[in-house]
Amino acid sequence: RINVLDPPDVIRSKIKRCKTDALEGIEWDNPARPEATNLLTIYAAVQPERTKEDIIQEVKDLNWGQFKPLLAEAIINHLEPIQQRYYEVRNMRKN
What is the rounded average pLDDT for all residues in the chain? Predict the structure, then answer.
């Protein structure tokens, strides 16, 4: 589970430890590969401007070792403005 306030190093570590399969390539919506579908769905959710087809083209020839850092950075980039705003509001309440 990734928490909204997890720092980048924690997010990277959690993504690195995600369960994946040993099959070549990364594909979406294959019932035999629920881990792939789960991680790709997260990847798409944190990049709402991208299409499923665009993402499939990007990752289809990658292995998990190549994809997981991309996923971690996409999550970090998505959460960064939320985290910044949280800390701004929290600091305003202290003053």
Answer: 94
